[in-house]
Each structure stands twice: as structure tokens, then as C-alpha cells.
Design a protein that fits this description.
- By secondary structure, the chain is α+β, with helices and mostly antiparallel strands.
- The chain contains five helices and 20 strands.
- The strands form two sheets. The chain has an eight-stranded mixed beta barrel.
Length: 332
Amino acid sequence: MRNSFFCIDAHTCGNPVRLVAGGGPLLPHLPMGERREIFVRDHDWVRKALMFEPRGHDIMSGSIIYPPYREDCDFAVLFIEVSGCLPMCGAGTIGTVTAAIEEGLVKPREPGRIAIETPAGRVDVTYEEKGGYVDSVRLHNVASYLHEADVGVDVPGMGRLRVDISYGGNYYAVVEPQENWSGLDGMSASDIVGCSQKLRSALADVCDPVHPDDARIRGVHHAIWCDRPVNDVSDGRCAVFYGDKAIDRSPGGTGTSARMAQLHGKGRLAVGSRYRHESLIGTIFEGRVEAEARIGPYRGILPSIGGWARVIGHNTIFVDDRDPLAHGFQIR
């Protein structure tokens, strides 16, 4: 049997976003959190086939659009990438909105504004369109917060690190320069991947955060290494790690949200402030702390992230049962 998937390929500030516009599995009309669970249980082969080699690669990310369950949303999104089926993805949202608007897949109720149902909750988006192209996108992300500060963890080959656990749609270990880590300068991509793998493994025995409002969102699966900016217009620089060996080419949407929540939680970023976040390749997201928020017992923020994406092509992908590698592979 051959399955066909029509995809619109794009990138958000350098990070790939593959929007599955046709061929995705039909899911029951339920809230996106429940649809995510069904997808993971019954259809995760689709994610692996489209994200893993030979059709994808180590940093591949994407999305599948669905009709919304919530009446206050224009459409719903399921985020897929090499690391799994995420509750939320900022770069994925920016890329998905850009591709969906430009290719006519969705028609917003109000031009320049769109509401998306994600597994993590409703995400409001504004965008600027010129001549049929989306120039920029600003997503108003889910409430984000500093879950735990100054967590001590012993990392093989690095020694003891002090990290903050912060939530921006996914849980992150936020690392800043300190005695046993001098910063990003001089680190190669493979160095960052190796350190991140060791850090995440070590943290598994130390902490297991659970979202106060949704117990299905739990665990530290991402790391963000933060340092001084290189670009004069930036406030900070980062490397976001996810999956087995992926480094986000963008500054990371949920990562920037988690970083701002961490800074706010430590009294270093006020409501109304902006935070221009630089990626390893020099692309920038402009974050803003829009307001304070409560997440269960925690004090957090409502962040927004501004960035851009570009559509780079159409892609019809076949997944054929006759192919021994139909469901993809990863080299570990």
C-alpha cells in the first residue's frame, strides 16, 4: 500500500517546517490534547516517516492542520518533529501560519488575525501580509512560567551545573554561563548536542516537572543554552536542543518563551519589556512580556514572539509498504 502526503515545505528563521496539507490521518472531532494522544497511540508512524530519514533529517519539524474543536479558533494544529508530537512549537506556528495563509489553506475570520487550537491551548496570532505574502508573524503563546530555579545536576564530563526549569509550551532546562560552563563561544554544534544529551539524561533522575493544568505535559525534553549576544541589536543568544541530536536553527519560539519566563521569574525582565533573541545562525525572534499570568500555584507571564518564515516548495511524499525504510530511521 502506498500512502501519499502533500506537504508545503517552509523554514522559520532557518528552521524547517513541513506542513502536511493533505494525507494526514483522520482524527475524531475532539479537543487537540485528546487528538494528540490518539495520534501518538495510533498514527505515530506518520510522524516518523515524514520527519526521520530518508524523507526528513535530524532537525526536521512539521505540522498537520485540522478543523478546530474550539469554536473560538480558526483551525487546529498538531505539531510533529523528530522528538515527538509536541504540545506547542513556536517556530512551527510561525511557519504553519505563513504557509497556510499564503497557500490559501485557511481563511481567517479577521484579516491579519488568526486563532489556533494547539494541544497546549489556544494561541492567538497576528500577521502582516503584503502582496499575497506573509512578511511577519507574532504569536501570543500559552502562559509560561519558571517551574524551579537553581536545580543542581551532575553532568558527566562537565561537573555540577546549576539550571532553571522553565515552561514555554515545552519544559526546558535553561543554562547560563557559570563555573563549569563558560558559554557558547568555541562550542561546535556536536559539542552542544553531546552536552545536551548528557544534561537531559542527568536531569531525568533529578526532576520531572508536570504542568499544573494538564498532567499530559511533563518532563524536561528540551535544553536552551544561553549566552551574550553577538549581534548588536540582540539582548541574548541561545542554542535550543531537542530530539536526539537536533539544534534549532531559529531562536526557538517555546524556548524564547521559556527564557523570558525564567528571566521574569528571577526579577530580570519586567512586564512590557522586549527580549530580542538570537540563534546560532544569527536570526532573531523578538519576544515581549505582554502580561503576568497564573499557572496553577505559579506566577508566570503571557509571552509573544515575533518572527518570519518563507515557503520554499511543494513536496508530495510517498510512504510505500514495499519500502523497507517506509517508516524512517535515525542513526544514533
